[in-house]
């Protein structure tokens, strides 16, 4: 990996750690289409993902994702099945398997409670994930695993949290106001006595 790219990925992951509480080993939720894309490009998926997040990672695949790989008619199906067996299984709420992408969409919901990084190829799902604050998104571009830049939503949340950190707590603000009022009253009473 190029030094410039590694530096930008490191900065991005530090942002997610500071603002959203991510920590190593990062949990990477891997979609079936990402596994198939990685295998078709002959990438060592695990190593490339760890390189992209600049740290240790725990790889998760859902039962719906595994069943989608089993049903796929891709030429790389056998290799994808072998690759998915190396990943940890993440329980999903579906009794009957749905598509792997739909499963990930439901797991993520409206906020990233479990601090998942998501490795996915589907453009529509990636666009939807960008609207959720604090979701590092990874995908394969040509034969490289790419960590997308921070979304605008994540940057806005980061700025808001910074402002909250810099703001004084309400108790301290009330104490300062009371002190200033007390000082002003003392000054006013001192002036009246002089007259």
Automatic annotation (TrEMBL):
Pfam families associated with the record: Fcf1
UniProt KW keywords: Nucleus, Ribosome biogenesis, rRNA processing
Coiled-coil residues: none
Organism domain of life: Eukaryota
Subcellular locations according to the entry: Nucleus, Nucleolus
This protein's name: U three protein 23
GO cellular component annotations of the record: small-subunit processome
Broad class of the protein's primary localization: nucleus
Similarity comment: family membership: Belongs to the UTP23/FCF1 family. UTP23 subfamily.
Function, as annotated: Involved in rRNA-processing and ribosome biogenesis.
Protein's UniProt keywords contain Nucleus: yes
GO biological process: rRNA processing
């Amino acid at each position: 990996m190029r030094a410039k790219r590694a530096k930008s990925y490191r900065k991005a992951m530090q942002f997610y750690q500071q603002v959203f509480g991510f920590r190593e080993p990062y949990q990477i939720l891997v979609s079936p289409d990402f596994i198939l894309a990685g295998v078709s490009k002959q990438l060592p998926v695990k190593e490339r993902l760890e390189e992209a997040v600049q740290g240790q990672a725990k790889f998760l695949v859902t039962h719906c994702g595994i069943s989608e790989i089993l049903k796929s008619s891709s030429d790389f199906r056998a290799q994808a099945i072998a690759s998915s067996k190396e990943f940890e299984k993440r329980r999903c709420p579906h009794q009957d398997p749905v598509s792997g992408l739909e499963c990930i969409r439901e797991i993520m919901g409206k906020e990233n409670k479990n601090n998942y990084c998501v490795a996915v190829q589907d453009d529509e799902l990636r666009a939807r994930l960008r609207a959720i604050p604090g979701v590092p998104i990874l995908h394969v571009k040509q034969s490289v695993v790419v960590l997308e830049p921070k979304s605008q939503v994540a940057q806005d949340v980061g700025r808001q949290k910074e402002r909250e950190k810099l703001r004084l707590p309400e108790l301290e603000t009330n104490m300062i106001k009371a002190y200033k009022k007390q000082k002003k009253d003392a000054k006013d009473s001192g002036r009246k006595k002089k007259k």
